Amino acid sequence: MRRQPPPVSPRARSWVELAAVPLGSLSGVGPARAKAMSALGISSLADLLSYYPRRYLDRTRLASLSELKLGEEAWLVVRVRRVRSRRARTGRSVVEVDCSDGRGYLKVTFFNQPWRAQQLKEGQQVAVFGRLDRYQGRAQMVNPVVDLVGDRTGRIVPLYPASEKAQVSTWQVAELVEKALEAVGELADPLAAAERRDVGLVGRSEALRMVHSPQSMEEKEQGRRRLAFDELLWLQLALLAAKRRSLREEAGICHDTRLGEGSLVAELFGRLGFRPTKAQLRAIEEIALDMASPHPMHRLLQGDVGSGKTLVAAAAMLFAVQGGHQACLLAPTEVLAEQHFQGLSRLLSGMEVPSEATLEGTRPLRIALLVGRLRSTERRLVTERLASGELDLVVGTHALLSEGVEFASLGAVVVDEQHRFGVEQRAHLRQRVRRDGLVPDTLVMTATPIPRTVAMTYYGDLELSVLDELPLGRRPVETTWLRGIRSWQRAWEAVRREVAEGHRCYVICPLVEESGALEASSATAEFERLSEGELAGLRLGLVHGQMASSRREETMAAFRSGEVDVLVATTVVEVGVDVPEATVIVIEDADRFGIAQLHQLRGRVGRSSLPSWCFLLSKEEITPEAEARLRAVEATTDGFRLAEEDLRLRGEGTVLGTRQQGRSDLKAASLVRDVDLVGEARQLATQILEADPRLSSRRLLAEEVSYFVGAGAEFLLKG
Question: What is the mean pLDDT of residues 169-185?
Fold first, then answer.
């Protein structure tokens, strides 16, 4: 039975309506206060009500000084008795604050935070969070988190992000939120009671009250859950509506996707010398179904490092070729493009494709490389052969996107490491409509495992294929974090041992500064140091992004062939470089890299049945965040587990970023903890659009999606 949209109370106001009401309409908000609040991104009533607390003070669970043990961390609500500031002998500023919670005394000490002397005043009530220790016989906290809570009472106190610079405190924000809730009254709810009941959600007005003025932490979570669901629903509706629109408006090519005897893909399998994994076969069958349909394929192929995405991509391109069309593979770097070209050339060498231009009815399959380093005559020859249809496959970098590159009959586009391309660049090939008006099929690939919630949120318009098993015989890479210079010798001994066994090794130098020259000098300096030091006597090669591409490829070829034992490189080798004989990778200053990048770099080894090692080198003193990243990478080689951990450590960031001036960022939802809500939002969005594809009877919902997501969804879909 089709559900009716919720009735709208004539007194209830919508989110979009509140977005048009300036903050200055609230009593007590003059020009100066309005300007200060705008520094926090709050200009309207909607901005204010969606400025959610960053944390809460549960006064029913507050510790007291008399109960707190040394070494324990806790929130304390204390009153400031005295504030002193001085300079230590080292020159550091020291602010000392004497406090009391009514049962005991606490000394709070701030180092290098001189502004605390102006922030904290005698008689003020503040909340401090930190570890209790003892100094000269007195209870003390050093550099605790501080929130100015004023004299607010209540069991649960919301603490809002404040701004010292704009002179806006958390209790001032709370005061304005309270006024806004009272002034707004009832908020219009775009969800019907039955829809809310199915997901276990409270009403929107109730949710706002629960988040801003909860009676318990359980109630706070109930309110947050509803507001989070709204954000996720807006995104899913935008993505799914755009996906439906593309299915309705775009026409694709019905490819010949035979897999049986006589097909190019069957011939490809016969050349492998091994059987594809079940995951690869499943992905190829999913792609075959997509490409045989009259709608253009938009599919994301997600697979951990070494899971065999290239074979799946080759099959997709051959589906296009065996029907008489062309295919292209877009790679982010020349190193990766050249490797793809060489690998595909070997794999497809001697393969015949149908041709009416020959007596035999077939001709050799033709493949070419198009990268920036080609001379103008070589480039012109490739583009002419593409335009005439003489070429079946082309592998290239951004050069494929340039003016003058035309295809006779482009049937399939594969984008490797798609996150490395700008959205507009990816869209350029995806939207390259043929002369007959048909849209080529698109397969985007990533070796960076994506948590399920992120895939459903960022790539909600794409069908998803996952390669979740490694080819037979592959071994996990043994990973060791070496902390402190004295322990690094173990890594260099492993390099020497493996080279003596006839294997090859990588040494990775980080990009220390955002400067090409510094990147090159960093790698060059380490290359020279190692050549004369720990790796003296071994054959070392150097690769970095500022080298001439011909020289870089020459060094890479020497490394593949074994003429170079150790490749000293920057992250130019992060993705796609495939040298099965490489068994050790040493990553210097590993604390400077993120989890995903470390995992990608580790994937340069362990690409055969040989045992392999990864050494993460760091100095003794590193940040707690870096320590957490290195421990995570050392603990597992499972890219999907690491992706979840990376999301937890880094946070989600933004979904649509500054494309919508931050308006669409997830404020209440969390892709880490709201796994169930993402699925629920997608399910409800599907049901709503099936009943009402244009949201004609869901005016409130349509307005919210348009306002909060707007063109941002189209921006995502271009990718």
Answer: 89
